[in-house]
Amino acid sequence: MNRSIRFTSVFALLLILVLLINLTIIQAFSREKYAENPLNRRGFIEMKQQPRGQISADGQILAESYQDADGLYQRRYVANPMAYGPVEGYISDLYGAAGIEASYNSMLSGTDPSLSISGIWDDLLGKQKAGANVELTLKPQVQEVAYNQLANAGYEGAVVAIRPSTGEILSMASTPSFNPQEIVDPNTAESAWENYNANDGDPLLNHATQETLPPGSTFKVVTTLSGLRAGYTPDSQLTGAPNITLPNTNTTLENYDGQTCAGQQTVSLATAFQYSCNTAFVQMGIDAGADNFREAAASFGVGDTYDLGLPMAAGTIGELPDDAALGQSSIGQRDVAMSVLENAVIAATVANGGKRMAPHVVSKVVTRDLHTVTEVKPQELNQALTEQEAATLTDLMRLSEQHTAGYAGQNIASKTGTAEHGEDSRNSNPHAWYIAFAPDSDVAVAVVVKNGGDRGQAATGGSVAAPIGRAVIQAAQGAA
């Protein structure tokens, strides 16, 4: 054989071998990367050949499929999509998928291996294949109260309500929000996408799970746990002075509005908690020590993420290089940051006698003939607090509620927070926080209103966030 022909033949064979190897790698090992990528338009076209499963909450359909004039199945968001958008998400030909639509895509589209038997049975019976339905734990009446409380006031923020005994999320509201129907409708998709991304409030972000903020005085629940484990009791005496100097610095921290705690130079821990006196908690946090502080935060799950089917940012207590840093962190400032979901878990854990349950927003997945494919069962993560620690914190949080604006005799245990932030933190519009639970009802809530809501620098957790939290608790009690 001619040498040139032989060389060309060998080279061609090598190219064929490389192509076969590459094809094998793509088909065998890169399926998830390419074939199941939500941006893969071929996958969307295939999915449109059969109805996608429904997303529902407590029997109310939130998302469903319908057949258009061309015989293709399109997505429709039917129940108050602005209230549910950050949870249910969207599935768009142009912009991929988000939220539950993304994380449960294989179930909703009917491509999950666990649905293969159901698919075979449909073929045998001549039925059209269909995706499975995803049922959420959200209670519509609670969800809509939470969303409306934020949206009607024009607030940026989030609300999460949890059933402490099971970890079921009863509401997860986020504002500003978005309408998933606008993103999936080809007539509005591009303009909606552009407008949402240009909005400084980040409406496409789930502010309940994806955003962490300084929690302010709500974090005193964690600091109190560290103090209890260091030997403090509600009767332990602490400073009530209007300000305190951080160790080895000239930096001072003050009580709210520079006031003496309850008009006293020395106060009990119970009084300090009731009046949320910063100086007392700086003293106790430093005395209890960094190890107790870290362990208390870890017990409550600060820094953990949960398998919600939704993206989640992890909170942090930051580095604690010295006592000055510990003192600042003890009042939920400096580098301490938490999501609303994490703060709701703290309230729920105290309410549940110290047992921390895994929060979850999906209840179960069922086929169209109501056969259960998967069901999320309550999962205890840890005994975060002893029953005595939980009882003590409950009593202290009851005292705090009684001192909060708008208290009208409700049986609620709570803690407010007014968190400074930004480069000029003392002159910032603070984030207003409220975490609470009703001891005689199985509901806990966390609320944040960013940047003071409509009250600017005058905002406090008690005046801005607490009314929202109480309304959500009342709605949950009515929905139980």
What's the structural blueprint in terms of helices and strands?
Elements: H1 3-29, H2 31-34, H3 41-47, E1 55-57, E2 60-67, E3 73-77, H4 81-88, E4 90-92, E5 96-98, H5 99-103, H6 105-109, H7 116-125, E6 133-136, H8 140-151, E7 157-162, E8 169-175, H9 180-184, H10 189-198, H11 220-229, E9 237-239, E10 243-245, E11 252-254, E12 266-268, H12 269-275, H13 278-288, H14 290-299, H15 323-329, H16 340-351, E13 355-357, E14 362-366, E15 372-375, E16 380-383, H17 387-402, E17 413-419, E18 431-437, E19 444-449, H18 461-479
Parallel strand pairs: 1-6
Antiparallel strand pairs: 1-2, 2-3, 4-5, 6-14, 7-8, 7-19, 9-12, 10-11, 13-16, 14-15, 17-18, 18-19
Distance between the termini: 86 Å
Mean pLDDT: 91
Strand count? 19
Strand order of the largest sheet: 3-2-1-6-14-15
| Total helical elements | 18
Q: Give the assembly state of these chains.
A: single chain
